[in-house]
């Protein structure tokens, strides 16, 4: 049978699953996407670029992963198994790329016994690459980390982070504790999420203000909402000026 027909036939059960588990909008857009892919497969007539199976697996995985990621990021899928990935991701938080990879490993394990072990292994390699690319496209290329800062000069550090990095922050009220210098007074604990490429700059800013500041850095798996990508205009933001003035007045 023609591959384009098989793609549509095997996607039907997953589209039915999607009708009851995900939004109708995703299902409708997925129907259009799957039909589009099927038509493209049916009529494509590209010339063979290489017969090297390793190159085919790696670059095929890059292209497949990019296509899947772009489709899912915009509320669609390119084949039925990805609907299962969207559902399980929403239900259990497992990355869509991993779900698609596991599904295809099972599929290609069967292929190894029916067709060829070599083809199955190269196909699994393709989807190992595709899974990583898919998750990267869906989650974005930016890598965020969390930072918690404890310092007696917390007001100056807050202003420096807002002015120099332009990222948002959350302040926790810390009660007195006990450290290397004995009992500590009440203070503000600063918590912020920043892009990993800005971490060195943040350390430099804090060091210029307080060389004894206590800093905790930790990985962040998922970030939604808030001020993450320099949305704060560091020069023209009137709210920032109000914030700085409020700090100055509180010190008087």
From TrEMBL:
Pfam family, one: DUF2179
Residues in DUF2179 domain copies: 168-225
Subcellular location as annotated: Cell membrane
Transmembrane segments: 5-20, 26-43, 55-72, 92-115
Domain of life from the UniProt record: Bacteria
InterPro entries: DUF2179, N-reg_PII/ATP_PRibTrfase_C, UPF0750_membrane, YitT
CDD domains for the chain: YitT_C (cd16380)
Location (main, coarse): membrane
UniProt KW keywords: Cell membrane, Membrane, Transmembrane, Transmembrane helix
Membrane topology of the entry: Multi-pass membrane protein
Entry-linked PANTHER family: UPF0750 MEMBRANE PROTEIN YITT-RELATED, UPF0750 MEMBRANE PROTEIN YQFU
Name of the protein this chain belongs to: YitT family protein
Source species: Polaribacter ponticola
Taxonomic path: Bacteria, Pseudomonadati, Bacteroidota, Flavobacteriia, Flavobacteriales
